[in-house]
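Contributing new complexes? Match this layout with zinc ion.
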Amino acid sequence: MERADLVIEHGHVITLDAEGRRIPDGTIAVREGRVIAVAPWAETRGRFSAGRVIDASGKYVFPGLINTHIHSFQTLLKGLGRDEPLLDWLAASIRPVAPMLDEEATYLGAAVACIESIRSGATTVVDYNYAHPRPGLQDVVIKAFADVGVRGVHARSFSDRVFGEGAGPLVQPPEVFLADIDRLAAKYGGDDMVDIWMGPSALWNMTEAGLKETAEFAADRGLPVTMHIDETGVDDEDSLARFGRKALPYLADIGLLNERFLAVHCVHLDADDIEVLRGSGAKVSHNPASNMILGSGVAPVDVLLEAGVTVSLGTDGAASNDSQDMLETMKLTALLQKVTRRDPGVVGAEQVVHMATLGGARALGKEGLIGSLEVGKAADLFVYDPLRAKSSPLHDPVAALVYSSGESNICTTVVAGRVVLEDGVVKGVDEADILRRAQRKATDLVRRSPGRPRSAA
Ligand SMILES: [Zn+2]
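Output block (do not edit by hand):
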């Protein structure tokens, strides 16, 4: 018999592999974090001696979802600055609080974000951390990834130009953030569960010299870059005023836009922008809840997909969502495109699930590791219990996942073969304790922040 660390058997497996295999009574065997078999149970019967067996009878097994844009500390800021447009919302919610963050607050914010992620089927997150003025806050986010057990990309964010009210404390000179990125890359280079990326915050928050240094540094180190792009019309206005070109063509000119670039939002695009994206090989993170809450507009997801651009899904930070729920994000993705085009045939459930899995994997350059359930790939998956009022009776598991699901459907989540959520219980941390401490810390932060963030109440 072959040794396996974990076997999940009798589940209905939705593999999302190239053939789109669905296995009604399937086995997934896992060894050392990787899938070693995905096959009908009848074919694997008696083949594995497993350290642990999960019986998924009556349930569905999907590849883990990939959330390509969060700001984990923003889970502390839910509901603040509500009903304001982007720059006013930044001044009302993020900017008064971000400079006050300490290690405990940053850790708790990240832990809550990771808990909600595994509870909504996400096994990988891209955390776009801010240019925290205090050193060491990047490291506690990575600790939260490891404690809760999510696969993480940590995009070390930065800005070197003051733009708008309250931005001053978050600005750093390039030599400071570049040195910190080198430090992080050296410290976590051997960790399979986390990647370090660069995160210039937005074109309007960067000097020309800072943008060019970022492009050179990324090319030199081979580091991926993620950046907010064309969330509103401000990127193009600012780029035209300073550089005489729109944002995307300018970034392509300076060599920042390439296949290792993940452009977040991409709401305000014209046909030329889409051609620039396609030609560069850059990927897109679509964040519908955030775009709707901030009234930013609707990203042309259908046109991007038709052009062959990789589109992945993100929640954005909880300050502009106000959650980290990838199930909700999938539903909003489909509905927003349909109502905008006045065409129910635009962006179907199957396409949305692909964006949330394989699209995310491609956006991260990790299509060989995650995004589908296949032999050799990581054992990143969730077990879906259909027997919940919201999803029952179920006829089509993919439609149910997109349109009729909530946290309670996600009973078990596995990341790199580690069971991080088991029958609804978070295994890596004491969830109730984290939630209580995060509430206390968030209330205290807001109370002590200069210029008190505005709540809608
Ligand atoms: Zn964002």
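Reviewers usually confirm one structural detail per submission. For this one: DSSP finds 15 helices and 19 strands in the chain.
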